[in-house]
Specification:
Layout (H helix, E strand, L loop, with lengths): L2 H6 L27 H9 L13 H14 L3 E5 L2 H10 L7 E5 L4 H10 L6 E5 L4 H7 L4 E7 L11 H17 L11 E5 L4 H4 L9 E5 L13 E5 L1 H15 L5 H12 L1 H20 L4 E5 L9 H7 L6 E6 L4 H10 L4 E2 L9 E4 L18 E5 L5 H12 L1
Parallel strand pairs: 2-3, 2-4, 4-5, 5-6, 10-11
Antiparallel strand pairs: 1-7, 6-7, 8-9, 9-12, 11-12
Helix pairs in contact: 3-10, 11-14
Amino acid sequence: MDLSNILYAYAEDRSQYFNAIAPPIMQTSNFAFRKVEDMSRAFEDEMSGYLYSRGINPTVDILRKKLAALDGAEDALVFNSGAAAIFASVLANVKSGYHILSVDNPYTWAKKMFDIILPRFGVKTTYIDGRSVENFRDAIRPNTALIYLESPNSWDYAMQDLEGLAALVKSINATRASESPSDKPSPQIITICDNSYCTPLYLQPARLGIDISLQSATKYIGGHSDVVAGVISGSHAMMKKIFDSEYLNIGSGIQPFNAWLLIRGLRTLPMRLQQISATTRTVIEFLKGHPKVEELLFPLDPSFPQFELARKQLSGACGLLTIVYRTEERAEIVRFCESLKHIMLAVSWGGHESLVIPRCAGIKPEHFDATIREHRMVRLYIGLETADYLIEDLRQAFT
């Protein structure tokens, strides 16, 4: 489907709402029926119509259909945060006694789910270096039911070979399906990939064989730092499974107004990513030549350790990059970040504004160790400002 059609026309039936160019915000909690039979059908399958906005809402419906199409997937669900999307998609696919395989150091709230919540219910997680398919092959157990990926992640941008891993899982699942029934049959393995770094414009995990593509729509999809949301996409059967259980039960669906803000954000997504990507390349050239930058990490820079995989798997890499600051003192990193006048000290990325966050902000000063490379990492997000404007700010802060 053509990208312009997805962003500007698909799933929008303007004749249903007075031919308004922008879709309306259906700010309603519930929907009325003329016939009991119609209400009964809605009770049987909330995903097939409009009953209660905890489930499906017309404004949300437009958004989820667009997001599924962007991902090259059959269907999608939209949540009130990325953390909620992670929670529901994982919880729907594990049960007591199952095993999860996750990449090292996943997103904070994914890791807390794996380390604190799921062990209470008999689900264990193993963390591995996901840069090699062989590492997954070696770590899969008979009770492994889910593989959790981030490609790239949001600090050092470690990637996984999604196509190679999907082929491995498909082979294992086929073998498991052919095994003789037993008291404890091995589960089919489900793959989940967090695609928040790239957006569906630059990477579509579903097209590479991944079961569930996940992203924080707070980032580039929203694009204005004014809405928090998460999205998962995949087969209709998988989305229905999650919708009927975790999505409805937890009540973590997005609200109509926030869905409308995301539809608005989608209208300018390609142009924003194009501008951000161009500015990022210029800022990278400045940073690579600065004496205070020991190392620069960006997936589509030739110096990146997985550059060949990045070039094969990604069609773009947007505006998130990391520098390893050349210093022996935490205080110098703090001074640099606090001296920036226009680049703001804040979490997240994907909005109009450029941001910075030092890794040492999450490390107690007494635990800072300059010999540990990660302690000296500073992550920059390049927004919609001009390159000259940002470079001048970086230059004066380094000074």
